[in-house]
Specification:
By secondary structure, the protein is an all-beta fold. The strands form eight sheets. It has a nine-stranded antiparallel β-sheet, with helices on one face. Strands 4-5-6-7-8 form a five-stranded antiparallel β-sheet, with no helix packed on it. The protein has one helix and 34 strands.
Length: 416
């Protein structure tokens, strides 16, 4: 039961690596806060399954995907955009594709919250893949686990049915277009290397032609990718394929850590969504939602915080993302540090409020050195960010202990 609405919500028992968990569909969880659910006895309300599996076709109201025994998605139909096919085989490899192999596909979990299929294959490296569709979300989740070390440079292929691919991806602290300066991109024509690009949180590949359809790829574990058939000296911007680096020594067998230091288990998680025009804010929000799942815990009682829902912070402008909220390096007695990122191409004004109210605030450097007083009006911080700008603030809340009196102790990440 959702205590805020007093309504039954979809839930199911799932098995994860041999252990049983309760999975609950938790929607509208307040930012930097919580929403409380209660387990009650009785049958509750019935819900249909989140998706259906017929043979090798997994389908929900948003997508219809075909999954091979090796865990590759060989067809991806976007049902919301005229049954547009988004998958394409390039070089014999499709989406989430480690390479040609025979494998076995089976249904692992099914219920009103999510449906998961499991594929197991012996090649080209022994691996298992779990692909999940979740009720009400435009997200395809892929959980890959490789069970063997390697000496080559394997990749996961993500090949898409886009005629004029246009790639945007996250560099360190920036979102950039993969193209040379002369072509409207952000890459230098000299003193640059073009084979392995930084993936970080996401890569978004759109069709720059008449059809503006595109996809966003979220990567929780892998940091580098190759665009098309790019080489160190040539950036291929015409082939709609991303090859995500599994691992290996890309600069030669004598460099780096041979055979990954003897490790034999590698977990690499991805998520996909379809989209219209590229939007950096939406792409980043999608990746952050995938890579930062809700943390669940048992309510321990107490009266310091509300018993149904709570939000510690409110940020007014959706183009400005909260990147961090943490105690100051000197301790919580010296305030809370809030870091924000304007992910739009224009300047943005925003306000930031704490549940306890902001008594005072300082703008700081990113290493938390105070720079100047920040504007606080009516217990709310007001500021402006330039295009793509990062800002950091030290916030002093009204009242003592307002940021460290949480009544929920995190125990297991499984609520969706």
């Amino acid at each position: 039961m959702d205590l805020t609405s007093d309504e039954v919500v979809p839930s199911q028992i799932v098995t994860n690596r041999g252990a049983r968990f309760l999975r609950v569909l938790a929607t509208d969880v307040p930012p930097v806060g919580y929403r409380v659910f209660e387990i009650r006895s009785g049958p509750g309300r019935g819900f249909s399954d989140a998706a259906t599996l017929r043979g090798d076709v997994l389908e929900n109201p948003r997508y219809r995907i075909t999954v091979s025994g090796r865990g590759a998605i060989t067809s991806w139909i976007d049902r919301q955009r005229g049954d547009r096919e988004l998958a394409r085989a390039i070089g014999g490899r499709a989406i989430n594709d480690l390479g040609p192999a025979e494998g076995q596909l089976e249904l692992e979990n099914a219920g009103p919250v999510s449906v998961t299929v499991r594929a197991a294959a012996a090649g080209p490296l022994p691996h298992t893949t779990r692909i999940t569709l979740i009720r009400g979300l435009d997200r395809i989740e892929m959980h890959n686990e490789i069970g063997q070390g390697f000496t080559n440079v394997p990749t996961w292929s993500f090949a898409f049915n886009l005629e004029a691919p246009d790639l945007w991806h996250e560099e360190v602290g920036a979102v950039i277009r993969a193209g040379l300066l002369a072509d409207g991109g952000h890459y230098s024509p000299r003193n640059a290397r073009y084979d392995w690009l930084t993936l970080n949180h996401f890569a978004a590949l759109n069709d720059a032609g008449a059809n503006r359809a595109g996809v966003t790829l979220s990567s929780a574990d892998c940091a580098f990718m190759k665009l098309g058939n790019s080489s160190p000296r040539v950036l291929d911007t015409r082939t709609p394929q991303l090859s995500v680096l599994v691992g290996g020594q890309v600069d030669g067998p004598q460099l780096g850590i041979p055979r990954q230091g003897g490790d034999i288990r590698f977990v690499q998680r991805f998520a996909l969504r379809s989209q219209g025009r590229f939007d950096a804010v939406e792409a980043m929000r999608f990746a952050l939602e995938h890579q930062n799942p809700l943390v669940t815990g048992v309510v321990g009682g107490g009266k310091a915080l509300p018993d149904k829902s709570f939000s510690a912070l409110r940020l007014s402008n959706p183009n400005v993302l909260l990147w961090a909220l943490k105690p100051a390096e000197e301790g919580i007695a010296h305030g809370a540090i809030a870091r924000v990122w304007n992910l739009s191409t224009g300047p943005q004004r925003f306000s930031l409020a704490l549940a306890a109210g902001v008594a005072s605030a300082k703008q700081t450097t990113h290493i938390e050195t105070d720079v100047a007083d920040a504007t606080v009006e009516g217990d709310v911080l007001s500021a402006s960010a330039a295009p793509w700008q990062w800002l950091t603030f030290r916030l002093v809340p009204r009242g003592a202990g307002s940021l460290d009196g949480a009544a929920v102790q995190p125990t297991q990440r499984d609520v969706r």
